[in-house]
Design goal:
The chain is an alpha+beta fold. It is built from two helices and three strands, in the order H-E-E-E-H. It has one domain: Beta-Lactamase (2-Layer Sandwich).
């Protein structure tokens, strides 16, 4: 296995156990959206999406938000990020053709 079983705690909300991390990754793969709920920095949450550029490189877009605003806005941010991802994929595929 290339990854550890436990991870350094950056904040009290950091996912430290492999089972919690794998569950979070499974959800992100299923929905296409990943969330950071103050796991890296207290006071900062984020929503992110991943895609591939025309050369096959993995790239990501992330929108950080102060944690106080996150509960009311995370769904809207995720929806707009997914729309941006779709628009970029459409643009890149038509530009490559």
């Amino acid at each position: 296995m290339l990854i550890g079983r436990a991870y350094e705690q950056r904040t009290p909300k950091t996912l430290q156990r492999i089972d919690a991390l794998l569950s979070d990754l499974k959800t992100a793969r299923r929905t296409g959206v990943a969330y950071d709920r103050e796991e890296h920095t207290l006071g900062v949450c984020a929503v992110g999406v991943a895609l591939q550029d025309p050369l096959g490189n993995s790239v990501a877009i992330s929108v950080p938000v102060p944690s106080q605003r996150f509960p009311d806005r995370h769904t809207l941010i995720a929806e707009r990020l997914m729309a941006t991802k779709r628009a970029l994929e459409t643009h890149m595929s038509s530009a490559a053709a």
